[in-house]
Design brief:
about 170 residues, mainly alpha, Arc Repressor Mutant, subunit A, 2 domains, 7 helices, elongated
C-alpha cells in the first residue's frame, strides 16, 4: 500500500470487476455458502483500508484478504468442533437457559478471559493443553505428536492451567 485514496478505481468498479472471480476462488476453498460472506468481508476490509491508504494492487489485496479470512474461518470452526462436548445422560435435567441471566453473562466473560489467556500462550504450550484437555490425549501421545519430551508436555499443561487460573482469579492489587 502506498497511494492514499487512489482515485483511479471506484469501489463499485472494483466490486464489479473482482467480486465474482474472488467468489469462485473462495468457493473452492470454503464452499458456496461461506464464499459470499468472505467476499463481502474482503470488500469491507478493502473499503476500511482504503480510507487511509489504498492498496497498489486491489485484486491481489482482495485475494490475500479473502484467503486469510477463509483460514481464520477454518481455525474458528476447528476450535468449535474441538470444544464441542457431548452432554451426559442427565443433561435433560439442566435447563436450556440459565435461570439467572447475570450468571450467564458472567460465565461468558470468564470463558472469554480464559480463551484470551490461552491465546497469549506460546503455540506449543497451548497446543499441548488443548490436545490433553479437549482431545483427551495422554502426555506420552502428545509428546510423540509434537516431537517433544513428556516432561515438556507436562510443563506446558501446567503453564496453561496456571494461565487459566489467573484468568479466572486475577491477583488482587
Amino acid at each position: 500500500m502506498s497511494n492514499p485514496k487512489k482515485p483511479s478505481s471506484t469501489f463499485a468498479e472494483l466490486f464489479h470487476r473482482h467480486a465474482a472471480e474472488l467468489a469462485g476462488f473462495l468457493r473452492v476453498r470454503k464452499g458456496a455458502a461461506d464464499a459470499e460472506d468472505l467476499v463481502q468481508d474482503s470488500f469491507v476490509r478493502l473499503l476500511q483500508a482504503s480510507a487511509t491508504e489504498a492498496p497498489d494492487n486491489p485484486r491481489a489485496w482482495l485475494y490475500r484478504t479473502g484467503a486469510n479470512l477463509a483460514a481464520d474461518a477454518y481455525d474458528h470452526r476447528q476450535v468449535r468442533e474441538r470444544v464441542h462436548v457431548d452432554w451426559p445422560e442427565y443433561a435433560d435435567e439442566v435447563p436450556d437457559h440459565p435461570a439467572d441471566p447475570a450468571r450467564h453473562v458472567e460465565a461468558s466473560q470468564q470463558l472469554r478471559h480464559v480463551w484470551a489467556a490461552l491465546q497469549r500462550l506460546p503455540e506449543p504450550c497451548r497446543q499441548a493443553f488443548l490436545l490433553n484437555r479437549l482431545d483427551g490425549m495422554s502426555q506420552r501421545a502428545i509428546a510423540a505428536h509434537l516431537g517433544i519430551g513428556e516432561k515438556t508436555v507436562e510443563r506446558h499443561i501446567l503453564r496453561a492451567l496456571e494461565a487459566c487460573r489467573r484468568a479466572l482469579h486475577p491477583p488482587r492489587k
